[in-house]
Amino acid sequence: MSSTDDKATGTANDVVGNVKQVVGNATGNDSMKAEGAAQETKGDAQKALGNAKDAVGGALKNAGDAIKGK
Fold first, then answer.
1. What is the secondary structure of 29-50 as a DSSP string?
2. Under 8 Å between Cβ of 50 and 6
3. What percent of the chain has pLDDT over 90?
4. Which CA distances in Å does 23 have to 13, 33, 38, 41, 55?
5. What average pLDDT score do residues 44-69 get?
6. Distances 2 to 25, 40, 47, 62 between C-alpha atoms, Å
7. Which of these, 39, 48, 51, lies nearest to 13 by C-alpha position?
């Protein structure tokens, strides 16, 4: 999965997780609130993975440019 895909999937999980938490709060459904919190955490992790992939890719590009003398 590309860094963009990771970040998009992470954002989607954040949104769905937030909605589940709001619905869980409104209906008094603790299970749904917990599920939403877990999904939001998963989304945060996916976005962090996408950001890490971007950082590694940038570092590799810079190293390659340095070796080539750019």
1. -HHHHHHHHHHHHHHHHHHHHH
2. yes
3. 79
4. 15, 8, 14, 17, 36
5. 90
6. 34, 20, 11, 19
7. 39
